[in-house]
């Protein structure tokens, strides 16, 4: 079975949340630890102060080994945290408690796959919460801004904050560099809490972020590719669009035969999730046919061009030129290509590869199948909201396997508390987490 993305954790108002991390060798052991903690808190009024709450969290992390049965209680004050601990003792659900069981077959140090989606994850204010509360995230955003600055005439942080006069996120030459920066900075934030990827995979432009995080591209080379490539795409704006369809792939391909040459399969995200790309007139006809057939579909947000189609061929020389000077190198983290559907040597991520990345079908489903076959069981989308979970879940279930599919942030929920909830979900599913930065 698959487990869904990070649960909907709700934390009371006030100062930033504090995690209390518990574990036991068995469910009874976890319950017993929670009972001891509850008794200690009820007898110690000093823990009611903010410093006391933080010190309890720090002592729990320092206490010992992370066992198989795990839980994290998140809260801003003693009452909130104690109510979560009591819920563990009484074995009932609570909105501020994340609990799970680490897969012993994967060991206690499971390393997740970092998943980097393409366009469509953006929302206004998506980074402001972390910019204001996480020095590490803010530092990484500033580094991305410096790397982008030779190629853009706007401030990355100003765009993220929605400063008046900055360009909007519906421009491809703005949103793609901004999303690249979000993904890279979120990956570095996970790293700052000790979470190291066991592999990376990227969808369309997400492969640029994946290549950088893998160690294959310097930040400067990755920023150059994403900035200049997004500017090249403005040449084909207004001629096409992209549509995601939730229906069996064979059925969608059969329907596409009626528009041979005008429409292309832009991406295959799962056995029943496909994105189609092509000419405006043909896409309107195709959309009407999907509507008549009762098929769920939606336009890719902010996209008024036909990537992964024949439209890209007119940009070939420009795309090869902009990536000609980059220096790809063997990565430190396994890189699973959605151009080939397989793990590849990142030293081969040359200019021709990046042209193929934009022209060819995104073979995301094949890459996920390969990752699963290679033993990867935990997937984390490093993005402002999860968009690839449905396709991944369908793929896992079709194979009869199991995996944990997680989000980092969510739409309209992008602050430190949401990130702590994502860390908790990773931890209870066996990922090694260094909690000490949470108490800084």
Mean pLDDT: 93
Radius of gyration: 23 Å
- H/E element string? EEHHEHEEHHHHEHHEHEEHEHEEHHEHEH
Biggest sheet details? 7 strands, mixed
Describe the structure.
By secondary structure, this protein is α/β, with parallel strands linked by helices. It is built from 16 helices and 14 strands. Strands 1-14-13-5-6-11-12 form a seven-stranded mixed sheet. It has a four-stranded antiparallel sheet with strand order 8-9-7-10. Strands 2-3-4 form a three-stranded antiparallel sheet, with helices on both faces. Helix 1 (27-43) packs antiparallel against helix 3. The two termini are 37 Å apart. The model has no long low-confidence stretch (mean pLDDT 93).
Which helices and strands, and how do they pair?
Layout: E1 2-3, E2 18-24, H1 27-43, H2 50-62, E3 69-75, H3 78-89, E4 97-101, E5 113-116, H4 128-133, H5 135-148, H6 156-161, H7 172-192, E6 199-202, H8 206-214, H9 219-232, E7 240-246, H10 249-256, E8 263-270, E9 273-279, H11 280-292, E10 296-299, H12 316-322, E11 335-336, E12 343-344, H13 351-359, H14 364-373, E13 378-381, H15 389-398, E14 403-406, H16 416-428
Parallel strand pairs: 1-14, 5-6, 5-13, 6-11, 13-14
Antiparallel strand pairs: 2-3, 3-4, 7-9, 7-10, 8-9, 11-12
Helix pairs in contact: 1-3, 5-7, 7-8, 7-9, 8-9, 12-13, 14-15
């Amino acid at each position: 079975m698959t487990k869904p993305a990070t649960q909907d954790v709700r934390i009371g108002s006030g100062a930033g949340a504090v995690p209390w991390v518990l574990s036991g060798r068995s469910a009874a052991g976890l319950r017993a630890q929670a009972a001891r903690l509850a008794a200690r808190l009820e007898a110690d009024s000093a823990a009611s102060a903010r410093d006391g709450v933080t010190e309890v969290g720090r002592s729990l992390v320092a206490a010992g080994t992370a066992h198989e049965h795990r839980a994290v209680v998140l809260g801003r004050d003693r009452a909130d945290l104690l109510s979560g601990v009591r819920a563990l003792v009484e074995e009932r659900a609570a909105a501020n408690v994340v609990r799970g069981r680490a897969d012993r077959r994967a060991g206690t140090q499971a390393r997740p796959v970092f998943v980097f989606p393409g366009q469509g994850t953006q929302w206004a204010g998506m980074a402001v919460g972390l910019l204001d509360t996480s020095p590490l995230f803010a530092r990484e955003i500033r580094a991305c801004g410096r790397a982008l600055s030779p190629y853009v005439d706007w401030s990355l942080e100003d765009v993220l904050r929605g400063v008046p006069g900055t360009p909007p996120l519906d421009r491809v030459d703005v949103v793609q560099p901004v999303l690249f920066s979000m993904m890279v900075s979120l990956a570095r934030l996970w790293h700052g809490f000790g979470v190291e990827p066991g592999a990376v995979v990227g969808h369309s432009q997400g492969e640029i972020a994946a290549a950088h995080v893998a160690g294959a591209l310097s930040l400067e080379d990755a920023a150059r590719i994403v900035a200049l490539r997004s500017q090249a795409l403005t040449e084909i704006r207004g001629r096409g669009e992209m549509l995601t369809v939730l229906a069996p792939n064979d059925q969608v391909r059969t329907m596409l035969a009626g528009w041979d040459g005008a429409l292309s399969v832009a991406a295959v995200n799962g056995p029943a999730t496909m994105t189609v790309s092509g000419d405006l007139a043909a896409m309107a006809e195709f959309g009407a046919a999907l509507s008549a057939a009762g098929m769920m579909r939606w336009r890719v947000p902010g996209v008024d061009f036909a990537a992964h189609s024949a439209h890209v061929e007119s940009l070939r020389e420009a795309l090869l030129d902009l990536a000609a000077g980059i220096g790809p190198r063997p990565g430190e983290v396994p890189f699973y290509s959605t151009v080939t559907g397989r793990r590849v040597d990142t030293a081969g991520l040359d200019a021709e590869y990046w042209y193929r990345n934009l022209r060819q079908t995104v073979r995301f489903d094949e890459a996920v199948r390969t990752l699963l076959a290679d033993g990867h069981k935990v997937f984390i989308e490093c993005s402002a909201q999860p968009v690839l979970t449905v396709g991944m879940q369908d793929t896992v279930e079709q194979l009869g396997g199991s995996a944990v599919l997680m989000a980092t942030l969510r739409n309209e929920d992008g602050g430190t508390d949401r990130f702590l909830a994502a860390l908790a979900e990773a931890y209870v599913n066996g990922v090694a987490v260094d909690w000490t930065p949470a108490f800084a």
